[in-house]
Design a protein that fits this description.
single chain; outer membrane lipoprotein receptor (LolB), chain A; 2 domains; 14-stranded mixed β-sheet; 14 strands
Amino acid sequence: MFLPKKNLLLLFAVSALLTAACHRPRNQPRIRDFADTLAVKKIDSVRMANQADSAAIKLAAEAEDAKFDPIAFDFKYLSAKAKFSFKNKTLDLDNANVNIRVRKDSLIWLSVSKIGLEVMRGIITQDSIQVVDKFNRVVYLYDFKALSTSFGFPLSYNLLQSLIVGNMPLPKRGNQRFKKENDVFMLRQEEGKVLIDSYVGEQNKRLKKLLAVDQPTKTSLTLDYDDFTELNSFVFPYSSLIQLNQQDLNQQTYQTVIRIKHQKVETMEQSPGFQFSVPATYKRK
């Protein structure tokens, strides 16, 4: 039996729709699977790119750190003449003359004079400090433990020697790394309860600034070095500013400020002499 042409067209249209309807569910999952695959590949690609960037940054930082090596000032004996100022809550000494002599890792000798007269002479060893006050005819005896307690900050011979010649008080260790900040490299270290930030110049590779904080007491020691001048095969900081900030039990802050402006510095192989004696008549404290 033959259907009218109009009905044949209608039947053909319905069949086409049914065929499309039957095939659509089979095609959609494939499209979604393909899209999901593309998304996963894109995520993997981004992850791999990020990992590559991180690895490149790490390698660049390690390479930059590897080529940066701070220079320590080396000597056997050192002799210096400088202008010296010291100010704290009990003493204000301005623009005095100071002679400093150092036997590396062993002895620091100093003589302070004002208006042509020696007012103080001191000698510092690895375990003790003696200061002769010629004006008041008194000699002061300290060890570093007592001095550290007095200042609320851990002091040592090595630290004092480093302050004079502008070396880092602690050497770089193991996995410690410098961080680049503008024209300086910064290294953060911990020594016991003290946090130390050392800032070393990119060009001369010498210590420019140091900040040390005793975390329990919040006492801070700040050093700023300037006027770097060639001395033998090194550069030496001819100006230094040292500030010690400490708090008492009432949380009141006291500051000690020391300024040194070197006029002459020289190193030598022979001892310049370390004359030191304590008159028997002087009172000991």
